[in-house]
Amino acid sequence: MDFSFTPEDEDFRAAARAWLKAHLVGEYAEAAGQGRPGSEHEAGPVRHRWERELGRSGWIGIGWDRTHGAYGNREATLTQQVVWAEEYARAGAPGRVGHIGENLLAPTLLAYGTDAQRHRFLPPVARGEELWCQGYSEPGAGSDLAAVRTAAVRDGTDGGTYRITGQKIWTSLAHEADWCFVLARTEPGSVGHRGLSFLLVPMDQPGRVDVRPIRQMSGTEEFNEVFFDGARAEAAHRVGAEGDGWRVATGLLALERGVSTLVQQIGFAAELDEVVRLALHTGAADRDPVLRDQLVRAWAELRTMRWNALRTLGGPGGRTEEGAPSVAKLLWGGWHQRLGELAMRVRGATAALGPEDWSPQRPYELDALQRLFLFTRSDTVYGGSDEIQRNILAQRVLGLPREART
């Protein structure tokens, strides 16, 4: 297949590269590379300002479907979205704080929302002003979203609002978000996929929305528990029909691994380069032929993942073919986890040591490769575990019967 870019794409690349070079200065340059997965605690205020800087120049939401109007973002083809993602990652720009609103909420509203919802919520996302989080997983419903128990009932006074009660967990960036899209059960007594609705919920509801950070073994707190105690959501902010939340929620998951997968892979390449550099510097690659083979294999697998992602991209909003998101998740989850293990193998015994400038005031500081190893232990679980992805492929792509439940 031809994976080359057109002259128009290369012109777009030059414009993106020039803008990044001109704007990644001062405090933004100092925050370069900070705020990546596992390190979302870094440079928070600066990254919020950077989000608005991107918005002012129209770099948020490039390529959004304009069938229903424009929302302050640039027009771009799918390949130009890939170009922007590549240049952003290569520039080492700060980790995004608005990616959930841009890459998950926005395509969902474009596909399933009303015009009123699009014009209310998309412009603030495009300006970098409103941040979002995702309210899916629960203590008893992680990858199995059909087991969601968070309930939403119509307010008895006018029926124009819902009252939401329940708990969500592993909610990324909930402590910073202005809004949360919540999958809740709106039909009492319903089970499984039926009776669920997709609601847009404001987070600024003191006494009704309580966010509690979850401390990771890496020492960071980017994930949260969120408790809803009669939290209000307007009925006009329900996406799709009442009880149709499963279709909307699964549609969102299909959008989750589009162009953003390529951004992720460029970050992976930088991590792999660091591991290879360390292996050469310490002589580990010369001493251990098995390790050397594993490093080469990791490079080849990463290139294969890139070609696979480019091959499967297509359709509005970066939609991919049936089953492709599950294949992508299985590929990168296992690959990234093995990279973390390789990093520790290259480090050898020193991987267990803390920083040289350790002090009682900083008893739990990790370097980048130690964080990589610890954080990647979750890669095959969050965002849909490997077991769930294999079930999706078996049932929806291969047509195999559903596994019997005991």
UniProtKB/TrEMBL annotation:
Classification via InterPro entries: Acyl-CoA_Oxase/DH_mid-dom, Acyl-CoA_Oxase/DH_mid-dom_sf, AcylCo_DH-like_C, AcylCo_DH/oxidase_C, AcylCoA_DH/ox_N, AcylCoA_DH/ox_N_sf, AcylCoA_DH/oxidase_NM_dom_sf, Mycobact_Acyl-CoA_DH
What are the residue boundaries of the Acyl-CoA dehydrogenase/oxidase C-terminal domain, all occurrences included?
243-398
Keyword annotations for this protein, in alphabetical order, are: FAD, Flavoprotein, Oxidoreductase
What superkingdom does the record give? Bacteria
Q: Which SUPFAM superfamilies match?
A: Acyl-CoA dehydrogenase C-terminal domain-like, Acyl-CoA dehydrogenase NM domain-like
The UniProt entry, under Pfam families, shows: Acyl-CoA_dh_1, Acyl-CoA_dh_M, Acyl-CoA_dh_N
* Sequence ranges assigned to domain Acyl-CoA oxidase/dehydrogenase middle in this UniProt record: 133-229
Q: Which cofactor does it need?
A: FAD
Instruction: Please report which protein family the annotation says this sequence is part of.
Output: Belongs to the acyl-CoA dehydrogenase family.
Name the record gives this protein:
Acyl-CoA dehydrogenase family protein
Q: What is the scientific name of the source organism? A: Streptomyces iconiensis
